Amino acid sequence: MTTDVDFWFDPLCPWAWMASRWMLEVEKVRDVSTTFHVMSLAVLNSGRDLSDDYVRMLETEGWIGVRACIAVEQRYGSGALRDFYTALGTRYHLGKEPRNAETVRAALAELDLDPGIADEAQTDQYDEAVTASHHEGMGPVGMDVGTPVVRVNGMSLFGPVISPAPKGEAAGDLFDGFVKVTAYPGFFELKRTRTADPIFD
Fold first, then answer.
1. How high is the pLDDT of residue 63?
2. How many CA atoms lie within 13 A of 177 on its CB side?
3. End-to-end alpha carbon distance in the chain
4. Cβ-based neighbour number of residue 91 at 10 Å
5. What pLDDT is recorded for position 52?
6. Cis before residue 164, ω within 30 degrees of 0?
């Protein structure tokens, strides 16, 4: 029987990108179907005491990607959102392209999606939908975590934070363990100091 997984991401986050590539690999070795959803680091961090540089980054780069993702989902469906996340994330994280309207427009064009979404994503018309999607994902895990958030069998956890994304059966093994710890309602946290940056391959 297929296991349905819901995955919340902000395209800005390299760690969410790594975990999303892991889930796509899991689908090759387990009977799993992943549905992607939008969360927003800008919404999450609104009103928090953060460095000026981080606040500036969220203000200038943090909204356009999530707005475009929500627009794609609303107009074309969750399958298109999945493909758009791959196109945009590849440009953001592997291509190191600027996180701006031109990059969003290029990702849309790659998939033959309406390039006008890049213009709409520079307005606040999708902010209510972004915020609703964000809270749907973050509500069950609380606001002390970030992205990704993964929900499986009705239970949600932040993470995993991984680098690089495992391949093949190693990806499946990690997923099996994730499902087991997620299933226990009293499980809250495992952690060790991060010693590697995101390794993209």
1. 96
2. 8
3. 31
4. 20
5. 85
6. yes
Share of the chain residues as helix, strand and coil, in percent rounded to the nearest 5: 50, 10, 40
Rounded CA gap, 69 and 65, in Å?
A: 6
Confidence (pLDDT) at 83: 98
Residues of the chain falling short of pLDDT 50: none
Cα within 13 Å of Cα(148), Cβ side: 27
Q: According to the model, what pLDDT value does residue 9 have?
A: 98
What is the distance between the alpha carbons of residues 150 and 1, in angstroms, rounded to a whole number?
19
pTM of the model: 0.95
Using CA atoms, how far apart are residues 129 and 102, in angstroms rounded to an integer?
Answer: 23
pLDDT score at 58: 83
Beta bridge partners of 158: 149
Task: For the chain, give the number of residues.
Answer: 201
What does the pLDDT read at residue 13? 96
Q: What residue ranges in 83-188 does DSSP mark as E strands?
A: 149-152, 155-158
